[in-house]
Design the sequence.
């Protein structure tokens, strides 16, 4: 089994796609005006309109209601990314901080309030852990 994507439901697909394109540098692939994907080597961030929820189960997902999931992206230099986003991201939850597990992390919120973590492994153990995953 492979994890293929994480889908975020929103009332404004274009706004959220533009935000993630700007913060990640990844261009979205649009299927319809209600659905787009940002594809990376490690997985896909799918962004769907609230109108798509009814296709699965009406009312099953609600936009801008997440308080338990963090969308994470591995980046080469989290401090450089932070500097690049200072004039764009409206809400930083923390500045780049080295975590006990060896990643230097930058936590912020997207326009719908979802938590986003950009991180760079900085300790030898963290660097090795992510090098093994890439193999």
Sequence:
């Amino acid at each position: 089994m492979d994890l293929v994507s994480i889908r975020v439901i929103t009332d404004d697909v274009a706004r959220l796609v533009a935000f993630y394109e700007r913060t990640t540098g990844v261009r979205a692939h649009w299927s319809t005006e209600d659905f787009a994907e940002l594809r990376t080597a490690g997985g896909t961030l799918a962004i769907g309109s609230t109108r798509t929820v009814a296709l699965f189960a009406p009312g099953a997902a609600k936009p801008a209601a997440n308080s338990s999931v963090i969308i994470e992206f591995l980046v080469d230099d989290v401090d450089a990314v932070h500097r690049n986003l200072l004039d764009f991201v409206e809400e930083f939850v923390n500045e780049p901080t080295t975590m006990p597990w060896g990643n230097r992390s930058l936590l912020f919120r997207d326009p719908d309030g979802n938590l986003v973590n950009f991180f760079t492994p900085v300790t030898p153990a963290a660097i090795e852990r992510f090098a093994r995953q890439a193999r």
